[in-house]
Amino acid sequence: MSLFGLPPIWMAPMAGEAASAALVAAVSAGGGFGQLGAAYLAPSRITEIAADIRARTNRPFGINLFCPQAWTRDDAAIDAYLALLAPWHAELGLPAPVRPAVCEEDFEAQLAAAVAARPAVLSFVMGDPGAARVAAVKAQGLVVLGTATQVSEGLALQASGVDGVIAQGFEAGGHRGGFLGSAEGAGIGTMALVPQLVDALDVPVIAAGGIADARGVAAAQALGASAVTVGTAFLLVDECPLSPAYRAALLDARDSDSTLTRAFSGRLARGLANRVTRELEGTALPAFPQPNAASRPLRQAAAKAGRAEFISLWAGQALPLQRHPGSAAALVAALARSWRA
């Protein structure tokens, strides 16, 4: 056991297709620490999935939320974005895209549901939850973590009272989790970010980004990380409910296919380049989360139709290091081999 009495190998909380009870429970039951990416879940679904996780394992797990984002609804910009999506809707035989009535879940209601679910850890990304929220969650006996892409963000989170900081390196898949400077934070690699945060902070640092095998785990520990969190490698374990098209794209991808894009959500995220990322490169888009909500019907239909060129294929730069990990427990064991107790 390691940080906070938890195993040192954590599964990154991945929202979307990977946000399943089966995957989270398999990681925790397999000797790691599973986390539920609850950012897109309604409060009632957070409650349901947390209960399902508990029905599958008595091991601890975590829940992650996106901090509230500052944005203003822009129907003209949404309409312009929908016009870009319209030909792809037609190609898939879908009705013309329409403006989403709601672009995001109620954060405070999500937070209340997450706290009531009693995870071992409640983590936040894309912002500083603030001292009042942190104190309130900690008062319920939960460990609270924030996500930093640079030292200034780590210091801000520490000042808010978090128990630890997740160092998200530039290699990490999915949305950038920063909040100071640019909207997405800084582009610092894991190898450079982790030791700087370790030196600057008094709270533990958890390494994230570019870690997919035992070598990455050993490197992160050598840099001072108190635990590691791995995302992309867990997308390919047996228990992950990815669509066949998404899984096939991950298995076929080369290292050079990794890209940063705002095309699907309006916020910078790392994934595999495809038709959407290439054709919308450089296009002005509405602020996150408006494109994320507007493109959801296209992405969901494309997944069902096996059309990976229209799916947000989130994945990190270390994807080629872990093609066939087997079960979640097997991957946890492989990663943990190099962690020195």
Describe the secondary-structure layout:
Layout: E1 9-11, H1 21-29, E2 34-37, H2 43-56, E3 61-66, H3 75-91, H4 107-116, E4 121-125, H5 131-138, E5 143-148, H6 151-159, E6 164-168, E7 174-175, H7 190-200, E8 205-208, H8 214-222, E9 227-230, H9 232-235, H10 244-252, E10 258-261, E11 269-272, H11 275-279, H12 290-305, H13 328-336
Parallel strand pairs: 1-9, 2-3, 3-4, 4-5, 5-6, 6-8, 8-9
Antiparallel strand pairs: 7-11, 10-11
Description:
The strands form 2 sheets. An 8-stranded parallel β-sheet has the order 1-9-8-6-5-4-3-2. A 3-stranded antiparallel β-sheet has the order 7-11-10, with no helix packed on it. A hairpin with a 7-residue loop joins strand 10 and strand 11. The protein has helices at 21-29, 43-56, 75-91, 107-116, 131-138, 151-159, 190-200, 214-222, 232-235, 244-252, 275-279, 290-305, 328-336; strands at residues 9-11, 34-37, 61-66, 121-125, 143-148, 164-168, 174-175, 205-208, 227-230, 258-261, 269-272. The chain has 13 helices and 11 strands. The chain starts with 8 loop residues before the first strand and ends in a 5-residue tail after the last helix. 38% of the residues lie in helices and 14% in strands. The protein folds into 2 domains: 3-69 and 105-241 and 322-336, TIM Barrel; 71-103 and 254-314, no CATH class. The protein has 341 residues and is α/β, with parallel strands linked by helices. Pfam families: NMO. InterPro entries: Aldolase_TIM (IPR013785), NMO (IPR004136). Belongs to the nitronate monooxygenase family. NMO class I subfamily. Keywords: Detoxification, Flavoprotein, FMN, Monooxygenase, Oxidoreductase.
